[in-house]
Amino acid sequence: MRAGYVFAWEDDPGVPHSSANAPVARPKPKLSHSSMAIKLNEQEPNRWHDRQYALRYWSAMDAIHRTISWVDDALPTPIGWNEHIGAELEVDLNAGIEFNAKYIRETRGIFFYRGTVGKQTIYSAESPDIVAHEVGHAVLDSLNPRLWQVADPQGAAFHEAFGDVSAMFSAIRIPEFCASVIYETEGDLKKSSRLSRMGEQLAWGVRVSRPSRVDQECLRNLANEFYYIDPMSLPPRAPASQLCAEEHSFSRVFSAAILDALAEIFSVHTVEDLQSAAKSLAKVLVTAAITTPLSTRYFADLAAHMLAADLAIYGQAHGSALRAAFGNRGILSRTEASELTPEVLADGSEEIGKVLKSKPIDKPELKTMSLSGGRYGLLGDFCVSVPSDLPRFVSASPPESHDEERPQRAAKFFVDSLFSQGKVNVSKDLLTDATAAYRHVETSTHEITDANGREYELRRIEFECPGST
Ligand SMILES: [Zn+2]
């Protein structure tokens, strides 16, 4: 190995014992100069460590470095982590036994786990897809902290989509990876490829105990056929082959539209063209993620904000690609897409202009509502944050429907879904014998506590992979 280089995976180790992917030589990542600093719990590999330790360590470091690099390129000035995290994001590459990876605000970090199938131990930290996804959650929590708490299926699903898109942008930083994807897809990025498939190795591990929780070849494939439908009309859980309102499942509609947009923008079929298409799309996506209000039309309004950001930054250079991508996935209706003229999109130019000049923007507090604990067999009521903003560019209700209570309905639907999936850890003061089912949840993404000492509220604890124990 040349001095200054290390071996790392580009995107994912792939299914165990397949030789599809191989580690490559990468420049030794330097993480010390970034405004997004990390605190690592492990030692830099030395000659006493085995090869797998070194590969895991450097694959994770390289993935973190590439993720922070794409984010830095997408913003006018570097930003730090969410204020709850502080100056350094903790990174634990070996946090325990579970087929999973998590971003947890309270413990200020990203946590990667390991699981064993037969004699094969899988470390989620060894997959750059998973690492870039988790860093993506931390980045989005800095860009738009209000998404953390909102009880809305689309807001939560966007967090997951952003993680997968982060993995995609992070892999595109490697020119050799781009070349292999262009070869594999013959230039048509809408085809399933290493770029579109997320977390092949971890999916292999999850599949043993939860075969219908993951896609056939990976955790999620962004080259898919899912079409937008109001998530409130979907079931809270379904096998991975179908769309449901659960955040990882529903995220696939938005992340697929981003892959479609990338495929449309990428026209010359060179490595440089792919990297430049990804950079433009990243800038537009990040600007929209900061500025889009949290409404129950979040996906549609986010798509419209991407059009507005593209108008402000690139003079609509990618307008037709974005319209085709969001229109063909049903995220924007045909009528909405045609009504979003440059005059209408200019309406958001003030906030977008502030983002481009790195100026802060004010956001109102989200409204809260009280939900009846009795509905879930609990002894007391609790509060949830409602997606109460009005959308900026699209109507507050989907076309041809009118529902003034839609934000409240979305919040209630979201909480019902969480309970259906066993994802809520309920404070024991609220439990009776009748609610024993809630005493043992598999992994809880949310909790109901009286943390502020006044009233019970639903709080998010973490974003996780759709893992299994
Ligand atoms: Zn996630």
Distance between the termini: 37 Å
Our Rg estimate from Cα atoms comes to 21 Å
Strand percentage, roughly? Answer: 5-15%
Residues in helix, %: 25-40%
Number of strands: 16
Q: What is the count of structural domains?
A: 2
Task: List all distinct small molecules, including ions and cofactors, that are bound in this structure.
Answer: zinc ion
Largest sheet: 5 strands, mixed
Low-confidence stretches: none
What's the average pLDDT? 93
* Number of discrete helical segments: 13
- Give the topology string: H per helix, E per strand: EEEHEEEEEHHHEHEHHHHHHHEEHEEEE
- Tertiary shape: globular
Give the strand order, joined by hyphens, for the main sheet.
3-4-6-5-16
Class of secondary structure makeup: alpha+beta
Provide an overview of this structure.
With 469 residues, the chain is of the alpha+beta class. 39% of the residues lie in helices and 13% in strands. A 5-stranded mixed beta sheet has the order 3-4-6-5-16, covered by helices on one side. Strands 13-14-15 form a 3-stranded mixed beta sheet, with no helix packed on it. The protein has a two-stranded antiparallel ribbon with strand order 1-2. Strand 7 and strand 8 form a beta hairpin. The two termini are 37 Å apart. The model has no long low-confidence stretch (mean pLDDT 93). The structure holds zinc ion. Zinc ion (ZN) is lined by residues 133, 137, 160, 163, 463, 465.
